[in-house]
Design brief:
Layout (H helix, E strand, L loop, with lengths): L2 H10 L8 H23 L14 H8 L4 H19 L4 H28 L5 E3 L1 H15 L4 H14 L15 H7 L3 E3 L10 E3 L3 H14 L7 H24 L16 H9 L8 H18 L5 H11 L1 H24 L20 H28 L9
Parallel strand pairs: 1-3
Antiparallel strand pairs: 2-3
Length: 400
């Protein structure tokens, strides 16, 4: 690696002496919560969508709903971290851009060739999920950072607030270029042309508006350099504004989500679930307000979380890449063993009901048990890696 690239890597690698503990703790919380959703996938898949108020139960709904906070918070904090650590090391924009580009392409490579395999233990296709979205958002941010901060703010806000105006546009409207629109705004499969040896791509996380969420984090990052009282006041103000906007727009079904909430025949409880059921793929304006608003409110509170709990959560927050890779591996191996022992069945894929064993019934407590076991087990490798990275300064550590 060139000296410039090495400097860029160092510029945004974790500067432990300058870390903001609330960011690490919040990132740790969302990583742990994220693992719950994946434990549900592996151990308790259902024929119905857990967020569908016409079919779900309260326990399934909220098990899924709480995990909605993970991706927006993590992507937003990725933008914050890019600015903070570049600022801490006085890295220039060219150095930061070089790192963002290299890390972005690295994450896309990992998504395609490592994470896809960990989910399936085969290559039936390539699922482009949150790691792909983060990688591409970093690549886009690498270009945006050369613009004035005010311009970046306008771009990010226009995309976040306005992208639901694009909802009526279908891939078919672009003819042969429809595949591009599915990458940008509409999740879809892209089958292999001519039935070639490489499986299809499934773009679960379209780029709009994820790159704007990261850019917004980058723009807002200087808030974290302010005095605590000023910083907390701004975070609380923005958090309450986002929640208020969600309640008003959602309450009157005005704008910001492709599907309005509706009164449910199953009763008031399920009507409330309908109110909370906002679109994640791609994340609607109301989805982002509902999730990022509470996340901003939580940050000032987490600054006071300096005891053992905060320390433990911070370990996961300092090692999100390692945790992400290992938790999928552990959950998949554990579920494969469980299906084999309990049902004598191998090759079970949670998204393919035809592969489920005969007599299988989803039981949510098993997912919670597996989630707790995996999170506890992963504390020690995460703690070891956190300590190792703190004591060593090799450039490649900033890519893990």
């Amino acid at each position: 690696m060139s000296e410039t690239a090495a400097a860029a890597a160092t510029a945004v690698s974790p500067a432990h002496r300058n870390r903001i503990i609330s960011i690490d703790i919040l990132r740790g919380i969302v990583m742990i919560i994220m693992a719950l959703d994946h434990a549900r996938d592996f151990y308790s898949p259902t024929l119905f969508a857990p967020e569908d108020p016409t079919a779900t139960t309260g326990f399934y709904f909220f098990t899924r709903w709480i995990t909605h906070f993970c991706a927006p918070t993590f992507v937003f904090l990725s933008g914050v971290s890019a600015w903070l650590y570049a600022d801490a090391r006085n890295a220039g924009k060219q150095d930061l851009a070089l790192f963002l580009l290299s890390r972005g392409f690295w994450l896309i490579f990992i998504e395609i060739f490592v994470i896809t395999y960990l989910w399936l233990f085969t290559y039936l296709g390539f699922t482009m999920q949150v790691i792909w979205a983060i990688g591409m958002s970093m690549i886009i941010l690498a270009g945006l950072i050369f613009l004035p901060r005010a311009v970046i703010a306008v771009i990010s806000l226009v995309v976040i607030f306005g992208h639901n105006l694009l909802d009526p546009i279908a891939p078919a409207d672009f003819g042969t270029l429809g595949w591009l629109w599915t990458i940008l705004h509409v999740p879809a499969f892209h089958p292999t042309q001519g039935g070639g040896p490489i499986g299809p791509f499934f773009f679960v996380y379209p780029l709009i508006p994820w790159f704007a969420v990261m850019a917004l984090g980058y723009v807002m990052a200087p808030i974290f350099k302010a005095e605590p009282a000023v910083r907390n006041k701004k975070l609380i103000t923005y958090g309450l504004a986002a929640i208020g906007l969600f309640l008003v727009l959602r309450g009157f079904n005005i704008y910001g989500n492709p599907y309005p909430w509706a009164e449910q025949a199953r009763g008031d409880f399920y009507t409330a679930l309908s109110f909370l059921n906002v679109e994640k793929y791609p994340p609607s304006l109301l989805y982002l307000c509902m999730t990022l608003g509470p996340a901003l409110l939580l940050l000032p509170l987490l600054e006071k979380c300096t005891g053992k709990v905060g320390t433990v959560l911070g370990v996961y927050g300092k090692t999100p890449f390692l945790f992400y890779i290992l938790h999928i591996l552990f959950l998949h191996i554990g579920s494969a063993i469980w299906y084999q022992v309990a049902y004598g069945k191998s090759g079970v894929l949670f998204f393919m009901p035809s592969s489920w064993p005969e007599g299988f019934q989803p039981v949510l407590w098993k997912a919670y048990l597996a989630w707790a076991i995996v999170c506890i087990l992963l504390y020690w490798p995460c703690k070891w890696f956190s300590d190792y990275r703190k004591a060593h300064k090799q450039w490649w550590l900033s890519y893990l």
